[in-house]
Design brief:
Elements: E1 2-3, E2 9-13, H1 16-19, H2 27-33, H3 46-59, E3 64-68, H4 71-74, H5 83-98, E4 102-108, H6 114-118, H7 127-142, E5 148-153, H8 155-164, E6 172-173, E7 193-194, H9 198-223, E8 228-240, H10 244-265, E9 272-282, H11 302-308, E10 316-320, H12 331-347, E11 352-358, E12 377-380, E13 385-388, H13 390-401, E14 403-404
Length: 406
């Protein structure tokens, strides 16, 4: 048995827009009304069913859960905060506490309130101040219900999909990429707007989001010095194949896709949350099995992802790692390989404190709608019936044993 450190956090993750339902005042809901992305609608109705969903998580041995708060619910108009929304999220956090489940709260998981999107979104000159105001309000209201708050989720995913690929709001696309794929996704270029400055904005928008995190960190610490503040960053690992060319390219890719951003924010992180889905071999033609997303299935690569951030000497939690697998045919092996990789990294000196599988529930997978199934729990969207998948019980044993059988 490979045992994990005492007190290790095992759980799963969700994001507000993807599971809650009934959110009609953000940029994704507006895009759905215009036919640019699929409708989200009721989603999993988690807004009303959260207690039953947390009962399932508890029954599966989870002692932690990562969730996000919906900015559009909390600040439906600029500078006007909704206390009913805060009350709802306080009840959500109290429901987790009542079940002995540690909450990891993300303040912003991609969706923007309509008023903010229409006034420029993250391109607004004062975006960092607007975000810090929102973050400080939320933490002031909820810091007694949660110890862990993450500011942003996957900042580069927002930029790549929103300004290069054109798959996410504001649906801008670098025209020279027409006919090419960045993430393995097909994008209808007729629904996108040309963004010739995308290569420059890739870096300038990253700077804006780094500043937003840093200002939010300072604002939160003034209110609640003991709150653990993190960012959730997706690590894309680039491996060289031994040639000089592959070494140079992988070094550059790891720098600009990982280290450049992290170096701007790491001093304003008490903890570091990482998401892992991608590893790329530079100069290699090796073929890997695919998940239902069409992504390479390489769960063992989480070891390299964790080793890549070891240099920052921060406590780490894996905020997301998971696979789309509608038939539940390889999810159990994916989870076991992921946990094995995390174990190897811990033995190598990485201070990993928790792992949240993505996702607890099947959910709205952004531009794919409800077609992709990541959940430990299957959702029948017509009836809202929940069904626990067999792989969830494999993960349950890992959680309850605090380890994995070799």
């Amino acid at each position: 048995m490979k045992k994990f450190p005492e007190g290790f956090h095992w759980g799963a993750a969700t994001a507000s827009y993807q599971v809650e339902g009934g959110i009609e005042n953000n940029d994704w809901a507006e895009a759905a009304k215009q036919g640019t992305v699929p409708l989200c609608g009721q989603a999993c109705d988690h807004f009303n069913r959260y207690e039953a969903d947390f009962d399932i998580a508890k029954s599966l041995g989870h002692n932690a859960h990562r969730l996000s708060l919906e900015w559009a619910r909390i600040e439906p108009e600029e500078g006007q905060f909704d206390q009913e929304a805060i009350l709802h999220y306080r009840r959500v956090l109290q429901a987790l506490e009542a079940r002995g489940i540690e909450p990891y709260v993300t303040l912003w998981h991609w969706t923007l309130p309509t008023w903010l999107a229409l006034s420029g979104g993250i391109e607004r000159k004062d975006f960092s101040a607007v975000f810090a105001r929102y973050a400080s309000f939320v933490v002031n209201e909820l810091h007694t219900e949660a110890r862990h708050f993450s500011t942003l989720n996957e900042p580069y995913s927002i930029i790549i999909n929103g300004w290069l690929q054109g798959e996410f709001p504001p649906f801008k696309r670098f025209p020279l990429l027409d006919g090419f794929k960045i993430t393995g996704d097909d994008v209808d270029s007729k629904k996108t707007k040309p963004e010739w400055l995308a290569p420059i904005k890739y870096f300038t928008l990253a700077n804006i989001l780094a500043r937003a995190h840093n200002e939010a960190y300072s604002a939160i610490k003034k209110i609640s010095p003991n709150t653990k503040v993190s960012i959730v960053f997706q690590i894309h690992v680039f491996n060289d194949s031994g040639s000089l060319y592959s070494k140079i390219i992988s070094y550059f890719e790891n720098w600009h896709r990982n280290h450049r951003f992290l170096r701007m924010v790491i001093n304003q992180c008490d903890v570091l949350g990482i998401n892992y889905y991608f590893s790329s071999d530079v100069g290699s033609k090796k073929v890997y099995p695919k998940t239902d997303m069409g992504w390479d299935s390489r769960p063992e690569g989480i070891y390299e992802a964790l080793m890549l951030v070891k240099r920052y000497q921060k406590p780490i939690f894996v905020a997301e790692a998971g696979c789309a697998d509608a038939g539940d045919s390889f999810r159990a092996d994916y989870i076991k390989a992921t946990v094995e990789g995390i174990c190897r990294a811990i033995l190598a000196g990485v201070k990993v404190e928790g792992f949240m599988y993505w996702s607890l529930l099947d959910n709205y997978e952004w531009a794919y709608g409800f077609a992709k199934r990541f959940g430990l729990v299957a959702i029948n969207y017509a009836t809202q019936e929940r069904s626990i998948r067999p792989s969830a019980y494999v993960y349950k044993k890992i959680c309850e044993d605090n380890g994995i059988v070799e």
